[in-house]
């Protein structure tokens, strides 16, 4: 693959231009048209509106030499409705030019599932039969967006089989922080299974659990060129780790495996150790930090990896080894003439040996604990309180949100759960962060109507008439505190704040009402 550094580049990177009108885009239009046979176009760090996008489309139709579209962070401050037509217009220009792309980078554009409408045509078009790199980090795709994306890539691959000398062979796929969850990961696994050409897959922070990981594992065993796999901060657990490592065991080109913050626990670590001893001959980096691994799992990993000549980093920080366990790991790993000290990462955040009641003595006890967790979560959703919320531990947001999909997709359920949590839990940082994450997820991934959310809140406060004759809530203290935090977030627009300000101004005076009004008047 030709590197970007050796290509002819036209860059508008970081200029901070706000391209609203056709006139605003004229400078970019002229530069693109007169730039010769450019291969890389960087637009990141500017913001493009619909009218400007159509002007850029006309310039792009003349650039058949284009190979890389570096268009991350080009819609800051734009409404969600602007993004699909803007993307579609610019991509139409590329398709009409006859360009043969190798990279599309649309990361950090919060277009959500609807935004896939703006890119699905180009992904299925002959312009992408040559596509090698697709970077969609932090786009808020959600499960629906991931399904649409997967369908577009499958259509593109199918079209390439019928109409190109070589099929579409994607090599790099990056889609962190997109709430893919199990359905999204399962759909993307179908793409990987079909193409069997992936070299690098990075999908961290996506709320993927064991069922999604198992589907991914099935597809990865056929991607024999895979070098980098990053699943950091997903809820893999030992149930997902075992099929995952089985799927990876015959991939001899693997250089990086990142399962940090994936809670694979001791059983998962022992599976990694078992396979690593005879697999992955060129492994350079293995990250298993913050996975609740105990000393026996750490020692097994150290033993299986001590003879890996290519290993540059083994990160086991933040697990449950204790001082004695750490000493055993070091003694096992550092054999004479083998690795230097820098290969074994720091243990400064080690959690210490687990208490006896934290250790599951056998599979039945582990299963009982899992069931109890599910029952506890149901109790929380039915009757939220801070004690239960804290019991979910540091990943409490993922724990709650991964089991509350129906609440996040329907504004009526979301509104009621929001008010129940605000009323039942202390208005502390944990609660406010959870409520913020819930609303952000609902807006970004499910297109929930926040104006309707505001209406329901006002109905339940008795401030506007409800068609369903809802009985007004009496204790509004927690709700008012929560709203004072939420209305400051970027997904809450000025019109929503004006509506809330108009009606909450009618409430009887209280300290919480006063603080909310201060925020609403200052926003």
How many E strands?
A: 13
Our Rg estimate from Cα atoms comes to 26 Å
The CATH superfamily title of the domain at 361-522: Ran-GTPase activating protein 1, C-terminal domain
Approximately how much helix is present in the residues?
40-55%
Overall residue-averaged pLDDT value? 91
What is the SS-derived class?
alpha/beta
CATH fold call of the domain at 361-522: Serine Threonine Protein Phosphatase 5, Tetratricopeptide repeat
Reading off the top of the CATH hierarchy, the class of the domain at 361-522 is best stated as Mainly Alpha
Please give the alpha-carbon distance between the first and last residues: 49 Å
- Main beta sheet: strand number and arrangement? 11 strands, parallel
Residue runs with pLDDT of under 50 for 5 or more positions: 356-372
* CATH architecture level-2 label of the domain at 361-522: Alpha Horseshoe
Number of helices, where a helix is a run of at least 4 consecutive DSSP H or I residues: 21
Outline = flat
* Largest beta sheet: strand ordering: 1-3-5-6-7-8-9-10-11-12-13
The proportion of residues in beta strands is 5-15%
